[in-house]
Amino acid sequence: MDNKIPYKIYLSENELPKQWLNLRAFMETKPAPLLNPKTLKPMTAEELSDVFCYELAKQEVDDTTPYIDIPDEVRDFYKMYRPAPLIRAYCLEKALKTPAKIYYKFEGNNTSGSHKLNSAIAQAYYAKQQGLRGVTTETGAGQWGTALSMACSYFGLDCKVFMVKCSYEQKPFRREVMRTYGASITPSPSETTNVGRKILKEFPGTSGSLGCAISEAVEASSTNEGYRYVLGSVLNQVLLHQSVIGLETKTALDKYGEKADIVIGCAGGGSNLGGLIAPFMVEKLQGKADYKFIAVEPSSCPSLTRGKYAYDYCDTGKVCPLSKMYTLGSGFIPEASHAGGLRYHGMTSTLSELYHQGLMEARTVKQTEVFEAAEQFARIEGILPAPESSHAIRVAIDEALKCKQTGEQKTIVFGLTGTGYFDMYAYEKFHDGKMTDYTPTDAELQKGFDGIPNINL
Amino acid sequence: MDNKIPYKIYLSENELPKQWLNLRAFMETKPAPLLNPKTLKPMTAEELSDVFCYELAKQEVDDTTPYIDIPDEVRDFYKMYRPAPLIRAYCLEKALKTPAKIYYKFEGNNTSGSHKLNSAIAQAYYAKQQGLRGVTTETGAGQWGTALSMACSYFGLDCKVFMVKCSYEQKPFRREVMRTYGASITPSPSETTNVGRKILKEFPGTSGSLGCAISEAVEASSTNEGYRYVLGSVLNQVLLHQSVIGLETKTALDKYGEKADIVIGCAGGGSNLGGLIAPFMVEKLQGKADYKFIAVEPSSCPSLTRGKYAYDYCDTGKVCPLSKMYTLGSGFIPEASHAGGLRYHGMTSTLSELYHQGLMEARTVKQTEVFEAAEQFARIEGILPAPESSHAIRVAIDEALKCKQTGEQKTIVFGLTGTGYFDMYAYEKFHDGKMTDYTPTDAELQKGFDGIPNINL
User: Is A194 an 8 Å CB contact of chain B?
Assistant: First the structure.
């Protein structure tokens, strides 16, 4: 064991980043802009600010400013749970008998249980600054809704969460955490919106979907005065806020003279991975250092590995702007899996473009393999990981085992985005041998591709 | 805001205590010894080692060695989640508009969700050293069972947990966390022990009790070769291991030149409070400094505030040694409450003796007041506390508000023993206005007192 490097590297509060890193500003070929679904022209900040807070809309379209100041109020909140530890997985290395050095950035040490809080607090701050009364959002697995509830509570904002009905019923404890923070939670589809009523009429007894919950949340933001809609992933603004993950990780490694060889993260909408790799990717883009980046996605929802790079709708209801991204089609409904946070048909435009340029790799893993890694990790490193995060653990272990074969002492860094305390139902399935895997056939994927609009700009 | 003191004080790994503090060694009048229930004579380490691991039995009876080395293997495990942060509650101070300085030692940043892991890993270590195959225990709320499962998994020991049947059914997720760590969980009463079968025959359909689960776990340790019984609170050995909480707290305060005026902890069996106050109490006993210590107990189970100081049985089945303690009687069944960890009829002998000597205060609080404080704290400080821990929060807030009235700038330190992620059912009751309070009448307490044996030594 290298005695100089502790198990947990905690940066001091002074080392907390003062600015977010805007990865797009460093890219020569920028990610394609969002398109207005009616005009098919690039969305301006003004247009976006009908739905989003104005400052966030500005951040969304800004692909030139390399660093953006983190407001003091947001930094003060960050100090309650950040800097997050970078942990040297000594026990895992020993158990795997690998020469590789393994580090993970742990974002689960806060009540929301994940990295989502990093962007939630920023979005709530800008909403408060704009003098809004509150915000609306949707949540599936519940991590984003929880994070936003905490952030809104802190700034005294109202928070209306549309929670996919089946999650609302299956995850009553997630719901109660949000209620503890004063949020109002509505099972979606609901009778409170036009779109909800329409869907309920058409599909009585439906247990809802993320696409529907988004539509309800967007509608509620427009019909309630003083409200805007906020979103926890996919958007550029979210990647910007999440860069705090990567910046802290890089500072911690630099401090101990460590250089990552491989950086691994799970990828649903891309918020965590985009944030984690940001400062490393900048060095790669500038030719200062080389890194291997691996995005890990579930075999049931393989947007990067098997999707098409095209303009597509971000939501099932087709009311949101179009984004150029790797997509399975907005009509693709991924098989139910226990990693709700990774069940998105597309991928944030920034990561899509980087992947398209060959600057990043992607890999799919099966659910049961993921839970094997999750349980192994929990037993060895003590932390019970979220199913989403465990996708990264799976690949980190695989890479460490490769090093064992080749004898290479690579430095592997992965993002441990959250804890699995509210996912024990999934662990139960796994323990009882009732968990199954799913990989869509080419024919099944084709159906989703058929719904992608034909837009060539 | 005092800029010199960060929100979170993280000690370095080098500052992790190398020795536990044995508070009894500093007491002039020692806590009374455990008595053999058959002979009513003080238990020797040899006698105790029929049930407990030998090293732990030695620690149990040792009231003279002031410091005991923490084995390297245990310290290595501690490094995965310790030193635990001492947090300056800047946000709470501001919200309360109090001149008081408030600090809390947060023990919830590990998968077991509480301080219980500090002793679980020590007990598992000594079991492994002794060459045992495994250990047995009982769990009610589930935090101890979870901690022990993690500890046993780390050392490759088998772990048999008897979980009170109503908890087993109501808290399936707690159960799954334990299964993730490879423990076998049996709902108690069960058909696997004589005592379980007897109880099931006598009370068909019973949902179990902690007293019964203890009896089953003790029986299982004696009928399975290579097993011993372990316990998560009440015992002196547990207080010894938990001294790591107080030692870290004091080191952190000293580092910033802070001196506590009031130290507050919730008290069920006394493990957390005994550990937190240990080094401060030593200074008080030595006349080096004065501190006000407050033990907080639920009004439904007021062992210190309304109990008798007498020798009593530690378990309902009366098979365990007798302990001199503040007790409500081993037959006292506390009203069901949402702070399962505080529903013990007695109090560890060390704290009982200190309280008897007037070195410590005690206070009761009502359940609904506790949850009000819990929710307030969650919203302001971001951490969702366990119901047990929230008893300490309630009194810390009360003391801070007193300072607001008097204008005194006292320094208040309290123990935040754990998180409430598996207690959301209780929060739901609170949100829905369905939570009630309970305070036993004198007549009800008298029934419990009637069962206390008449032992005068």
Answer: no
